[in-house]
Amino acid sequence: MDFRQIFSDRKVVFACATLCCFLWGSAYPAIKIGYELLSIERSDIASQIVFAGWRFVFAGIVLLLFARFTGLRLFDFTRRQAGEVAILGLWQTALQYVFFYVGVAHATGVKASIMNATGVFFSVLLAHFLYRNDRLTPLKALGCLIGFAGVMVVNFRPGAFDLDFSLLGEGFVVIAAFVLSAAVIYGKRLSQGMNAIVMTGWQLGIGGTALVAVGYVSGGQMGPVGPEAVALLAYMVLLSSVAFALWGILMKFNPVGLVATFQFLIPVAGVLLSGLFLGETIFEARNLVALVLVCAGIWMVTRMVRARA
Length: 309
Prior knowledge:
Layout: H1 3-6, H2 10-37, H3 45-69, H4 79-105, H5 109-115, H6 118-130, H7 138-154, H8 167-191, H9 196-217, H10 227-253, H11 256-260, H12 265-278, H13 285-308
Helix pairs in contact: 2-5, 2-10, 2-12, 3-4, 3-9, 3-10, 4-8, 4-9, 5-12, 6-8, 7-13, 8-10, 9-10
């Protein structure tokens, strides 16, 4: 089976990337619902980290079991590659999700989903310095400015001139987006020398284990785990394993810019699903304006990539 040919087909890329972005968008309301079901307070950072850690530990196990079931070798890598995968896990899963989970706890699902879209612009800027064939053009620069204008709009309080912004909330979500952007580029390089599913499974497991350890050592705990909490955690495990595995495969066989095109769907899905499941206001003027600006900025940033592809 020629995986490169399959996952380079535009219809397959569209379907898989759309699914990934929808799943990631659903994470915003799912995390907030999880905090409520597990009695995790907004200020209880240690317990938030424990919650995140178990999600990724189980997601890593699911992927590794799937890899083993399909005949892939789980230990087919050198000692150097093992170290690099461990670094990726601590970077992409542990460090990024410390910022992400804390940020989501201190911001609305609508705002968090839009703020996280800044990751696209970080990817563009990083690619400018890392890849000679992916320089920052005037169109890309304009797209970044428009996108960040959307980020600014969503943080203005109606009728006031100050910014509705907190470091632990929106600030941590933006930091998480930057950490992820850098980690994805690093992971793309690693995936060229090993199977993307195996690599993703190990990095999720390693990063998740680190999160669990840090969370418990810091005094974190999870409240009563009832049937609803188990069902939610199972969904989030499936969300992580499917989305990260598919995205890793797409990144391995396609240009970064082409795959990143679809990330505009994440804030769209995040806003809509937060409104549906959390009862948050979707049609507030600043949210709609911010969403349009963010999506327009991402479209402009990736327009040239799509035209060449």
